[in-house]
Amino acid sequence: MAHSPIKYIFFDIDGTLLNRQGQVSQAVANELHRIQGLGIGTAIASGRPYFACRHLIKQFSLGGPGVFYSSALVYDSNRDQELYSEVLASNDVQNIIQQAERNNIYYELYTRDNYFIQQEHPYASVQEHYLKQRAQPCLIKELIRTHKIYKVVLTINEKSQKEDLRELKIALPQFTFADAQGAEHKEILFSNITGPRATKSRAFESVLDYLRLTPEQVMAIGDSDSDKDFITMAGTGVAMGDSPDEVKAVANHITLSTDDDGVACALHELIR
Description:
Blueprint: E1 8-11, H1 26-37, E2 41-44, H2 54-60, E3 65-68, E4 73-76, E5 81-85, H3 90-102, E6 106-110, E7 115-117, H4 122-131, E8 136-137, H5 140-146, E9 151-157, H6 158-171, E10 176-182, E11 185-194, H7 200-211, E12 218-222, H8 228-233, E13 236-239, H9 245-250, E14 253-254, H10 262-270
Parallel strand pairs: 1-2, 1-12, 7-8, 12-13, 13-14
Antiparallel strand pairs: 3-4, 4-5, 6-7, 6-9, 9-11, 10-11
Helix pairs in contact: 1-10
């Protein structure tokens, strides 16, 4: 594709940029460097908190306006500028926690710089592995009173607790849920809960307005259900080869799996 119209690319992290070993391969790193040399902007669009993305942003120059906390924060790292944020109200957090405890679902609360748990749990070590940061045990009621909560994350075993999560979603229809599997733990499902105004469309449009781009000038690459909106809204939506069928169905390009350097393959084929 000579003279690519693409000017900006959003990358999901787990299962997209990062392979099952939690690494960005050399082939992907080389392609990132190449397209950045063409003047194409690169950024992250992830359910991850901003604090867990900073090392990737710095190492691979992904500091353009990005989307974090499942669209609860849009932040330009290069200019240290927040475009918008949507935090959960204290009473909403309380409601979510009560439902999670009622359904025996493990939960974590996320602030700007850290994440917190009521007590230790085996799933805490899984999240620590992904985020490279350990959750802080705390008195949840005190945390809610003193800190802004960007999102609540529920973690379940998809086989044994799927019905519990379904019931919780029915009980909390006013919130936005974004589900994603762990790249290295396919049996685990993370469900990110944000406020009703923290939507993918709002985040996507805010970045495009800020950069004065059209959707046709944007590419989005992802692998999970939570990436579908960006893949659909971007002019070029790319699904990883090991994505679920429903994710592939909304993409206009399907690349190889993350362990086969799918991101590098897509960038090489679509941007020349």
